[in-house]
Give the backbone structure.
Amino acid sequence: MELLHVDLDQFWKDDIIAHGENCFSLKAPQVALGIRMSDECVFAELGEEGTPWAYTSVERRIDLNKRYNDKAEKIVGKRLLNEKFAPPDANLPEVKRIGEVFGGKYVWFNDTEWLESGIKTPEELEARLDIIDKMDLREFMLPNDWEQQCKIKFEKYGARPSSWHGVRGPITLACSIFGIENLIYLIMDEPDLAKRFSDTIADVIIKMTEIMDNESGGKSKSSGFGFNDDNCCMLNDEMYEFFGYPILKRVFDRFCPEPHYFRYQHSDSAMAHLLPILGRLDFHGVNFGPTVTIDKIRKYMPKTRIDGCIAPFTFMGNDQNKIIAEAKRDCEMAKQCGRGVNLSLAGSVNNGSSLESMRTVMWAICEYGRY
């Protein structure tokens, strides 16, 4: 790939200004850049063996990231990846996750984590909801030696439990636990049970978040919350308003009730039909699928920062012309739709995505994204 000319020092100076006021600043000279690559990318970039989502020892991770950053500094003018990691024994014991509350199990298959469940019928779902109603969530979530381990890790490393303000989105969770078709039929055929399922998801998210807020020593009413809900596209607008919207509304009202608080949703899927509903939730930022373009989002979210919409497979393909075409489209839409764009991918930055591709997006911003 040809390395396009970019004044790197000037680009990053302008990019700092571009992120002002949630990327809506009238002082911004150009569209903001949200791409910062990821730890996954070191393997292909450096020609190293490794599985991006599998465990990598701390020693090797530091070495890979340092060498990657040396290369990044030359190509994009910035060290992008973390080079400091706590030793493995500084980690606190694992806390059980929301999928486990609903009877699911997290498993690794083809180097990817999946949530699996044996709940297949409305009767089995109802039985699990009965169990959750009686569950002591704190006792279920935290291991028996939690307090002791927290004390040990704090005294040795100063480590504290983290608060918990992001979660698998409600439709993705429900589809993993009960199945996509089953969820749709449940909403259509047994709305009372579907409503109970939805209410319970909201209850559990709020209670789990409050528990981890308390464990971290923070306040239970935080300044933000975010959802990752790729499967929201599986419901039509009527079904989503019935099942999904009330969950987000309750959680946001609980943890980010004021307009300036952080409200976020990532859904890298074709869910443009849900924009009129999601637009009522006053998001601070969103990141949607590559077919849900800036002009479509802005119609319903005039004050929301839009992260996207370059397709991850376009970026990973490292085809300069295709990357420029999508970046140009987003830059022109940012200028037409009143700023507020943080030029990112409509999804993850995957292994195989090159630093040259990031520089190509930077060039496109300089060429097409100046305000």
